[in-house]
Design brief:
Elements: H1 5-17, E1 20-21, H2 22-29, H3 33-45, E2 49-52, E3 55-58, H4 68-73, H5 76-89, E4 95-98, H6 102-110, E5 117-121, H7 124-130, E6 136-140, E7 144-145, E8 152-153, H8 155-161, E9 166-171, E10 175-176, E11 181-184, H9 187-198, E12 200-206, E13 218-222, E14 228-231, H10 239-246, E15 249-252
Parallel strand pairs: 4-5, 4-9, 5-6, 9-12, 12-14, 14-15
Antiparallel strand pairs: 1-3, 2-3, 7-8, 10-11, 11-13
């Protein structure tokens, strides 16, 4: 299914709060209990949410990410705002690496008319988007292509990345924990992200607010290794203090 606008807001609300009762959601969105129950039934059947007696929670797993097509829909407006802010911060004539993720793909779309960029990517979706820009050189990493999202991973990908030193490495992430740990789901993808961090003069993270508190299995790194974070809302505590202590520049793409 493709959620309607109200259902998308409902999903984002549950993602932000961690869980919600049927009554709270009905009051929050100004609809009847029957309407909320119908929405929740449809969203749970499609795998966006998990129902329990009297309420609902996000369909989060520490071992498996949300399916690619669902991630494309979730928080899409927030990702678009983040993408515009990231793209506006990237100067023409810049070298950069864009890795796997729906937010980095949104950034690529915002770079479609920029000049003099040299982009290295392990994301075939990013490559397809930016290949339409005649003023942008796109270099695609070798490796194993994941059919579910066209991301490229593996030892060959890591080795390829190590041949470069770019101005900006832009990464996505699945989880930011309360101690500043960055996590994702696929250890092969994490190894590529580690290589990107090591071979970038500046490391930028693009992550919408649903990534705060979200569980994931594989440790990628720590916020101390980042130079800038782009997100869509004021970080909740304790993240705000963590970012200040780490000297991390936090750019917020508000509505």
């Amino acid at each position: 299914m493709t959620p309607n606008p109200r259902q998308l807001q409902l999903i984002e609300s549950v993602q932000s709060s961690g869980s919600a009762s049927v009554e709270d959601l009905a009051e929050r969105f100004g609809v009847t209990l029957q309407t909320v129950r119908r929405d929740l039934k449809q969203l749970a059947a499609a795998g966006f949410l998990v129902r329990f007696h009297g309420g609902v929670r996000p369909a989060n797993s520490t071992t498996e990410n949300i399916a690619y097509r669902k991630r494309k829909i979730l928080n899409s407006q927030a990702k678009q705002r983040i993408a515009k802010m990231v793209a506006n911060s990237i100067p023409d004539g810049c070298s950069l690496i864009l890795n796997i993720g729906t937010t980095t793909e949104a950034v690529a779309q915002e770079l479609i008319n920029r000049k003099g960029l040299r982009v290295i990517t392990n994301n075939l979706n990013v490559a397809a988007i930016l290949s339409d820009n005649v003023d942008c050189e796109v270099i695609v990493a070798g490796g194993v292509v994941r059919s579910r999202d066209r991301g490229i991973v593996g030892e060959a990908t890591v080795e390829f990345i190590t041949k470069f030193k770019v101005d900006i490495g832009l990464i996505g992430i699945s989880s930011i924990e309360t101690d500043g740990t960055l996590r994702d789901f696929d250890y092969r993808e994490v190894k590529v992200s580690r290589a990107i961090i090591k071979h970038s003069r500046q490391v930028w993270l693009a992550a919408d607010s649903s990534k705060f508190y979200r569980p994931a299995m594989v440790e990628l790194g720590h916020i101390n290794e980042l130079d800038r974070l782009f997100t869509d809302m004021e970080p909740p505590e304790p993240f705000r203090k963590l970012f200040e202590d780490a000297g991390l520049q936090c750019d917020i793409a508000l509505p």
